[in-house]
Write a structure and sequence with these properties.
Elements lengths: L4 E5 L4 E5 L7 E4 L15 H23 L3 E13 L7 E13 L3 H15 L1 H6 L4 E10 L2 E2 L3 E2 L24
Parallel strand pairs: 5-6
Antiparallel strand pairs: 1-2, 2-3, 4-5, 6-7, 6-8
Helix pairs in contact: 1-2
Length: 175
């Protein structure tokens, strides 16, 4: 069982979260007193949920690409969430945008890896998918060429080959 401890740091006006790596606490915004004018003191709790989803999926993608021995220079994920207008303001839509840079990368291979993470391996997204629509986009930058931002198919059927062959980034050798 996973465990995270949350403590209120009253002087700083924030919560502090500590997990299994206690040396790396996370600062979380706390409510202000009515007369306080201070700004944010950390992530909001809902931003942490999005950060958890992005980090969880990025972890999966990186592990799968390493196992396939792909030459990755960078992996960035931006996560956007749309919340309901009324309390409890649950997320209704979460969109992950992946940008993967390296050498010899192919868009359709990376699409498959992102799809596996989103649909099968990321526990945070599996939890969110019960209440929110999950979407993903991918931009592959390889050998000086960029695919541009494209939607990743998350349908239950296997994704088709790259819908736009001009965006396929060929590897030096076939897998």
């Amino acid at each position: 069982m996973k465990s995270v401890a949350i403590s209120w740091d009253a002087p700083a006006g924030r919560f502090v979260a500590r997990g299994s790596h206690a040396a790396h606490p996370i600062q979380i915004n706390a409510p202000r007193e009515a007369d306080e004018t201070r700004g944010s003191t950390g992530f909001s709790a809902t931003e942490l949920l999005l950060a958890g989803a992005g980090a969880c999926s990025a972890w999966d993608v990186l592990e799968m690409l390493r196992k396939r021995r792909h030459d990755i220079d960078s992996l960035d994920v931006t996560v956007e969430g749309e919340q309901a207008a009324d309390p409890p303001w649950a997320y209704e839509r979460v969109v992950l945008h992946f940008v993967v840079s390296g050498r010899g990368l192919r868009w359709n291979v990376l699409q498959r890896v992102v799809r596996l993470s989103v649909l099968r391996y990321c526990s945070v997204l599996a939890t969110l998918s019960g209440v929110a629509r999950i979407e993903a986009t991918l931009d592959v930058v390889s050998d000086g060429a960029a695919s541009g931002r494209q939607a990743v198919s998350l349908e239950s059927a296997p994704p088709p080959d790259d819908p736009n062959p001009s965006t396929l980034i060929e590897p030096p050798d076939e897998d």
